[in-house]
Prior knowledge:
Layout: E1 31-33, E2 94-100, E3 109-117, E4 124-131, E5 137-138, E6 143-145, E7 148-150, E8 153-155, E9 158-163, E10 171-179, E11 185-193, E12 206-209, H1 214-219, E13 226-229, E14 232-238, E15 249-252, E16 260-267, E17 274-277, E18 280-281, E19 285-286, E20 294-296, E21 299-301, E22 307-308, E23 317-319, E24 322-324, E25 343-347, E26 353-355, E27 358-368, E28 378-383, E29 386-396, E30 402-407, E31 410-419, E32 424-431, E33 434-444, E34 450-455, E35 458-461, E36 466-467, E37 478-480, E38 483-486, E39 491-492, E40 495-496, E41 503-505, E42 513-515, E43 518-521, E44 528-530, E45 533-535, H2 538-544, E46 551-552
Parallel strand pairs: 12-13, 13-15, 14-16, 15-17, 16-18, 16-19, 17-20, 18-21, 19-22, 20-23, 21-24, 22-25, 23-26, 24-27, 25-27, 26-28, 27-29, 28-30, 29-31, 30-32, 31-33, 32-34, 33-35, 34-37, 35-38, 36-41, 37-42, 38-43, 41-44, 43-46
Antiparallel strand pairs: 1-11, 2-3, 3-9, 4-5, 4-10, 6-9, 7-8, 10-11, 39-40, 44-45
Amino acid sequence: MRLIRALPGLCLLCFACTDDGPKGEDDGSSETVGDGDGDPGDGDPGDGDPGDGDPGDGDGDPGDGDGDSGDGDGDPLPDPSCEGIGDAVDELGTVPGDASLPFPTLQHISVIWEIEGDSNENGTVTVRYRSDGGPWREGTPLRRVPAGSLEGFAWPNRHAGTVFGLSPGTNYEVELFLSDPDGGCEIRTLEATTRTRPTAIANPRVLDATPASFSQVANSSEPGDVIALGPGNYSTFTFQKDGTEDAPIVILGDGGAGGVVIDGDVRLDGRSHVIVDGLTVNGQIKFNAATGLAIVNNTVNANADGIAMLTRGENIYVADNLVTGPTSWTEAALGVNGDNLGEGIVLTGPGHVIEHNRVVGFRDAISLLEDGGANDQFSIDILYNDIEIAADDGVEADFCFHNCRIIGNRLTNTFIALSSQPGLGGPTYFIRNSLYSVILTAFKLQRGSIGDVVWHNTVVKNGDALGIYTTDVFARQQFRNNLFIGGPGGEYGGWSSGSGRVIDLDAADPSCDLDYDGFGSTTGNFVGNIGAVSFTSLAELQAMTTEVHAVEVGLDVFAAAVGYPQPFPALEAADLRLAPGGAAIDAGVVIPGINADHDGAAPDLGAHELGDPLPSYGPR
């Protein structure tokens, strides 16, 4: 009897991006509207600044699976109350509209609440959640997203955000407390269930196949079957059968050990609920317009794209794959027009989870589609991937409609690390990513990007520590608890990495909000600008910009010896965990639902809390 391998477990912590959300965002969740006369609470809807929740346990996986992101002291959260807040009487007040929880992933729930009014944008929505009637936990407040349009896409007036660190396959109540001091208040409760990872059914029918018999066996398969491929070399194939959500079909190899080899492409266009597990593919795995697929534990040796879906699909799970491409780490390869090729993993549509993959040697390692190809790109998790050699973008989270969550990834040797070009209103979340040996920019917020959220990242790059080089004004970004270290720059492949300024944000709109970040340059200088405001010292940065609580850091902030990155030849990944006693320790601010389990007086800056182990990057 053949042993069927279970798919690995999933833990996540993620963040978002925004647009109006396509037709079909209805998740079927039920809702309850509060009457405003419930038990008295503190009457404080929250201001979106850091609070004290926490979805993660610091063990390197996205969450601890217990769904606990409460206030960290075990005390029950106070009930919200609309007492004393009247209805909106003019455009300054808020009129609540439809609320939804579209496309839950395994450990995150996206939240959208459309509104009318609030022209001065001072309305807030705080979040509590619970499972199985348990105690309420504090979630991350929603972001205020005014109506807008950009690059042919439009979105309505709303609040948007994510409930982080949940358990798979669990039903949650999500309580939203909307409050506007100019009038308008409502307590609304919705319900949604997180997804489970796709796995084979218990005691499946196992169909053994060889290269000679595979086509016949595949055509005879039914939902719930496992097609177990024997050793050998298989030709390109197109699979034409569907499983069901409760009974997927599994195409099972040998865990990528090299005995089951596909010499060509694996195509699953239009398929639903099929698991491709443990193949070695000398080509690509492609599945346009698919639903509910799982692509796991494979080794893909690509000559262009590796794992690809180029038309809208839903709820794809891509995990624990090794994807290797044709692009080398050379100066000639750098940039969109460089000598580079391929997308390591590229998807479009809602509800996808891309986690714990190792992706090496592409133009862009992990990508969403751009412009007219972008279709309903929301509620997407990109988590704990290990990325090396991306000659253009490491993660290209462009044209994210809302609630794209790029969390806990490690990127080494990238031209551009993380791209939001553009974000469509936000939030697009970039959280606890570790970036080393970046050449041009750590965050490419271009084409007028709106609503990016940048929390708890660590950046060590060549040239300017934090530089976004564009004349297109970017707006409504929030930066908190990050570390940015640069140094002497250079010209690489015709591109300048900057002169070693700590900040170079010429096109930052006044709505950009940066604070509680650490900056440094190995040049010994501390100069830069945010928009039109220039500074020549830490004291001037603190006095003249929103970075009131900024600190100055150097490479000695890390416990390991971290070398200043000269990009060529390619460097090994660096251990960017903190040393005790440095300027980054206890220098952050609490963010509800994200970092309440911090040690010491306050959260530490950067991707790693002091004393935490390194995350499990790449395949598990």
